[in-house]
Task: structure prediction
Amino acid sequence: MNRSSLFILGLLLVSTTCFGQTTPGDSQTLQALLLEVRQLRQDLQTTTIAAERAQILIYRLQGQEAAVARASQRLDEARDKLARIQEERKHVAADVKQHEDFISNSENPATQKKEIEAELSQLKTRLESLENEEQQGQTRETEAEQQLRAEEVRLSDLRDLLDRLDKVLEDASRRLGSRPQ
Result:
């Protein structure tokens, strides 16, 4: 039994000295592993940066979509207000015409004529005011349309940028997928 114990102990000593020695193949393997770890770290950093940029871009896109919605709402409000002003102007113009026709075709007493002329004067003043408001409304509508178009262009640019980023990430993913393991 002593002999077999001595034999086992000898094998253990010889095997541990063999494990302690490195061959040139082991050094190359370690270098390859180290290179792979460095590449993985670089890929992880690149992916993290790309993900952060994508997140920022998505927030900007959401903000721009909200700006487009606000600009669209302002345009709708400007159009509604302009339509109301135009409708009122048409009614006042019709009233002016009606009063003028009444005065020219009427043989009413002077007092009644003076009352109608006074009303006509007020109606003409109101008509002038409405015409000015209509011009201002048209200007507001034009400005709102321009603002909406500008916001839509910005939104389109952000969407294009997001599409390009998606394409870059997709290409990078394909390259990583086709890389030899």
